[in-house]
């Protein structure tokens, strides 16, 4: 930029100098011609009468010094500065004025020489006029022109810069639209970018669309793999459990050796069951995590979800526990993935039944400040506050006080229930909280942003 | 030539055809007088002013300047214009201890400045003084002096006091018995200012040739110097003076001479007395201050209160009959301080103009030619 400006400045200065020279050279030549025209002869004797107008012409360069001389046909100086003609090198060709630069009386001057043939002089020949003028006015004009040209140049460069800025902004506006569209879209939306774009960025948008499509195919593959893996792993596990059961049944004989084998088989059965449970949870976790990432959210009624879960476990309880639902009859909606949410709440309920609830289990649902809450409350010992952060992580287990894991082979309920719930609620931009209620009951609460008003039911 | 530097014995004598004046010039050069104005305060330096202007005209300005600069003494050396020109041409660059050069022959000053004698003073353009009074920031005109026609009131009745050149020609033709031999003007061969005025008159057109012719028929009296012409007019030996310096004429009238000053109504040639500081001036700073003072409002006011009664603003001078000389007036023919003056200084043109003048007024040809 600076180099360009310097180069342009040099060009401007050179043009300005040429323009100023051109303008003032004309004046100089005009004055010289007027002087040479004033030469006349009387009886063969040369006379010259430099006209006022010649000097008026030169005085247009108001502050410049002027030197001149008129030399007769024999070379003697008729008038003016005697030593000026010697200064001018070369002869003017024909009638053309010869311009040049020199120094005279200590000042740089622009010179011009013109001549005229005088046939009726005593010695016919050329009369020459030498004229010199200092360069102050032309220098001032050149400087003035340069400064103005540079000012104009600066303005033009500024305008060009602004125009380029504007053009770039306009040209890149489709990119900003693409960006906005990408930001605004649902993470699960893998459809092509539907923004109209100019040809210049069509390739980019096409590449993004292609990548998105491949990502969608990979996700679908993964989904199928998980589903198949679930099936493929669950089936042999179930078979393994049945075989162990059969073995236990077959070893019903008495005797120390048989007893010992039975005890071992019982331990194998417990391990197999634990493995099955863990496997199921892992697969569930994967399924749930995958679902909340991949499936589009729809309005889900938490109240209905809570009542459904309570109905589902009502007949399966192994001990006497009061089940209760605390919430409104009308729907409490969130935008979410129904299956995952159900899985999360079911895990909380399962945890409560397994480790907590002594006599009572309640699911509370309510709407508050733009959030929907669903809480699973039991009258068990709850989780010590020190473990509240830890239990959210997979395989850290619920570690509930009084958890009974002895008969399960000391695995102490290590599981994924709370981790799954945590993942699901996060995917719904919600939080999971633990609290101990005033009546001593323990509550696990999922807080999820409520569905926007007017959302489809 | 406004110089008063001639020997006192010649004062008041009209020198017919200017012969004596021309002969006197070299003699006057050897009789240069330097007048000292001691510094009013503690004297720090002496400003050497070399001038072709009456000391009496410059005295109030010098004294007023010294009131502002009490440390400056002034040594005022008076010349006739041609002597000053020769002196400066001889030692232009070195200037030989000259701090200030002041003359009414602005063509000579311009030639000196054109040859590179002067230094730039860096004086800002003044609003009161027109552009044509300065050149190159080196040469500065500071007075406004129209060329006028002067009548002796006793010798010329009011109806004969013509206001234009054509009127003057008619008068000389109509009443030769009254005015023949009683009209005077400068001898252009010996008077720098006379040459300058007639050269500009000649630019004015055909009428000047007829004036010259009429003057020649009326047996014009020629003189080198304004003072001598004015003395002759005051005493009645001359009735009419043509092309005299208006400022001196008004001053003479104020001093009691029975004169009538008329500013020509057809056109008026105006001279601005000028000053420059030589390159080698020893006291350049004080010289610059003096020039600045001359151009300042204070200096201009002081000049008008003294000898230089006309102002650049064209304000009316009651003693002078004539049109107001407003700066934009169409009849104003200022002698512009510009390279135009080089044409006046041209030796070929000078020879031609003087030749024409001489043949017109009938002056004898073997006059010693004065170098430009």
Fold topology:
The complex is a heterodimer of chains A (457) and B (372).
Chain A: H1 2-37, E1 39-42, E2 45-48, H2 52-58, E3 66-71, E4 77-80, E5 98-104, E6 107-118, E7 125-134, H3 136-184, H4 202-250, H5 256-294, E8 298-301, H6 302-314, E9 322-326, E10 333-336, H7 338-356, E11 360-368, E12 371-378, H8 417-427, E13 431-436, E14 442-449
Parallel strand pairs in A: 9-11
Antiparallel strand pairs in A: 1-2, 3-4, 3-7, 5-6, 6-7, 8-10, 11-12, 12-14, 13-14
Helix pairs in contact in A: 1-2, 1-3, 4-5, 5-8, 7-8
Chain B: H1 19-30, E1 33-37, E2 45-52, H2 55-68, E3 72-78, H3 81-90, E4 100-103, H4 106-114, E5 134-135, E6 139-141, E7 145-152, H5 165-174, H6 176-179, E8 183-186, H7 192-203, H8 206-217, E9 221-223, H9 226-235, E10 240-245, H10 246-254, E11 259-262, E12 268-271, E13 274-276, H11 284-295, H12 297-305, E14 320-321, E15 332-334, H13 340-345, H14 347-361
Parallel strand pairs in B: 2-3, 2-4, 8-9, 8-10, 11-14, 12-15
Antiparallel strand pairs in B: 1-3, 4-13, 5-6, 6-13, 7-10, 7-11, 7-12
CATH homologous superfamily caption of the largest domain in chain A? Histidine kinase-like ATPase, C-terminal domain
Measure the end-to-end span of chain A: 63 Å
Q: What is the fourth-level CATH superfamily of the largest domain in chain B?
A: Periplasmic binding protein-like II
What Rg of chain B do the Cα atoms give?
20 Å
Number of helices of chain B: 14
Query: Uncertain runs of chain A with pLDDT below 50, 5 residues or more?
Result: 398-414
Number of domains of chain A: 3
CATH level 1 name of the largest domain in chain A:
Alpha Beta
The largest β sheet of chain B comes out as: 8 strands, mixed
For the largest beta-sheet of chain A, the strand count, sense and barrel status come to: 5 strands, antiparallel
Run of helices and strands of chain A = HEEHEEEEEHHHEHEEHEEHEE
Largest binding interface between chains: A-B, 25 and 20 residues
Shape, per Cα inertia axes of chain B: globular
Strand proportion of chain B, as a percent range, falls in 15-25%
The total count of strands of chain B amounts to: 15
CATH class of the largest domain in chain B: Alpha Beta
Order of the strands making up the biggest sheet of chain A: 4-3-7-6-5
State the secondary-structure class of chain A: alpha+beta
Based on CA atoms alone, the radius of gyration of chain A comes out at 52 Å
């Amino acid at each position: 930029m600076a180099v360009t400006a310097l180069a342009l400045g040099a060009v401007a200065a050179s043009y300005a100098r040429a323009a100023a020279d051109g303008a003032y050279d004309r004046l100089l030549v005009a004055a010289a011609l007027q002087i040479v025209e004033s030469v006349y002869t009387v009886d063969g004797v040369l006379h010259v009468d430099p006209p006022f107008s010649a000097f008026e012409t030169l005085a247009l360069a108001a502050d410049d010094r002027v030197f001149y001389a008129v030399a007769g046909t024999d070379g003697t100086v008729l008038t003016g500065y005697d030593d000026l003609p010697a200064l001018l090198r070369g002869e003017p060709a024909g009638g053309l004025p010869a311009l040049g630069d020199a120094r005279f009386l200590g000042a740089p001057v622009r010179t011009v020489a013109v001549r005229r043939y005088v046939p009726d002089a005593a010695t016919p020949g050329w009369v020459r006029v030498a004229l010199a003028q200092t360069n102050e006015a032309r220098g001032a004009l050149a400087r003035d022109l340069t400064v103005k040209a540079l000012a104009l140049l600066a303005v033009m460069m500024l305008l060009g810069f602004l125009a380029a800025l504007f053009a770039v902004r306009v040209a890149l506006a489709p990119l900003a639209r693409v960006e906005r569209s990408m930001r605004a879209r649902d993470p699960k939306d893998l459809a092509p970018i539907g923004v109209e774009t100019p040809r210049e960025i069509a390739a980019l948008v096409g590449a993004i669309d292609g990548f998105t499509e491949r990502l969608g195919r990979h996700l679908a593959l993964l989904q199928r793999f998980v589903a198949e893996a679930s099936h493929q792993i669950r089936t042999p596990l179930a078979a393994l459990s049945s075989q162990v059961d059969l073995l236990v049944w077959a070893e019903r004989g008495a005797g120390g050796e048989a007893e010992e084998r039975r005890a071992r088989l019982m331990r194998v059965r417990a391990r197999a069951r634990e493995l099955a449970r863990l496997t199921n949870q892992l697969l569930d976790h994967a399924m749930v995590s995958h679902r909340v990432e991949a499936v589009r959210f729809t309005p889900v009624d938490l109240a209905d979800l809570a009542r459904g879960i309570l109905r589902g476990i009502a007949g399966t309880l192994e001990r006497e526990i009061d089940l209760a639902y605390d919430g409104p009859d009308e729907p409490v909606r969130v935008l979410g993935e129904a299956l995952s949410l159900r899985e999360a709440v079911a895990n909380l309920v399962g945890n409560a039944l397994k480790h907590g609830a002594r006599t009572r289990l309640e699911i509370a649902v309510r709407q508050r400040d733009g959030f929907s809450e669903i809480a699973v409350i039991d009258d068990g010992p709850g989780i010590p506050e020190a473990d509240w952060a830890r239990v959210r992580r997979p395989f850290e287990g619920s570690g509930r006080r009084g958890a009974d894991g002895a008969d399960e082979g000391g695995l102490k309920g290590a599981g994924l229930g709370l981790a799954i719930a945590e993942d699901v609620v996060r995917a719904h931009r919600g939080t999971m909280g633990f609290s101990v209620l005033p009546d001593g009951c323990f509550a696990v609460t999922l807080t999820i942003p409520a569905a926007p008003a007017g959302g489809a039911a | 030539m406004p110089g008063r530097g001639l020997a006192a014995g010649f004062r008041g004598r009209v020198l017919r055809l200017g012969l004596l004046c021309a002969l006197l010039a070299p003699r006057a050069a050897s009789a240069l007088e330097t007048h000292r104005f001691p510094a009013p305060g503690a004297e720090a330096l002496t400003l050497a002013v070399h001038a072709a202007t009456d000391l009496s005209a410059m005295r109030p300005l010098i004294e007023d300047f010294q009131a502002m600069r009490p440390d400056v003494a002034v040594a005022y050396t008076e010349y006739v214009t041609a002597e000053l020109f020769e002196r400066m041409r001889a030692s232009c660059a070195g200037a030989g201890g000259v701090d200030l050069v002041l003359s009414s022959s602005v063509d000579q000053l311009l030639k000196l400045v054109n040859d590179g004698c002067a230094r730039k003073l860096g004086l800002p353009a003044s609003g009161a003084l027109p552009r044509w009074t300065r050149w190159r920031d080196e040469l500065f005109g500071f007075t406004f002096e129209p060329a006028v026609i002067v009548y002796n009131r006793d010798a010329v009745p009011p109806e004969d006091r013509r206001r234009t050149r054509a009127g003057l020609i008619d008068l000389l033709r109509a009443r030769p018995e009254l005015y023949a031999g009683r009209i005077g003007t400068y001898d252009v061969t010996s008077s720098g200012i006379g040459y300058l005025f007639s050269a500009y008159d000649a630019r004015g057109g055909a009428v000047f040739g007829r004036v010259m012719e009429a003057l020649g028929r009326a047996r014009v009296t020629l003189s080198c110097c304004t003072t001598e012409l004015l003395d002759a007019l005051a005493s009645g030996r001359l009735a009419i003076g043509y092309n005299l310096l208006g400022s001196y004429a008004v001053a003479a009238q104020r001093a009691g001479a029975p004169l009538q000053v008329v500013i020509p109504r057809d056109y008026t040639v105006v001279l601005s007395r000028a000053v420059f500081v030589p390159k080698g001036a020893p006291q350049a700073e004080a010289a610059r201050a003096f020039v600045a003072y001359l151009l300042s409002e204070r200096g201009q006011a002081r000049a008008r209160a003294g000898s230089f009664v006309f102002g650049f603003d064209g304000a009316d001078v009651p003693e002078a009959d004539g049109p107001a000389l407003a700066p934009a007036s169409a009849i104003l023919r200022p002698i512009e301080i510009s390279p135009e003056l080089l044409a006046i200084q041209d030796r070929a043109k000078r020879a031609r103009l003087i030749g024409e003048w001489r043949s017109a007024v009938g002056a004898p040809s073997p006059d010693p030619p004065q170098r430009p």
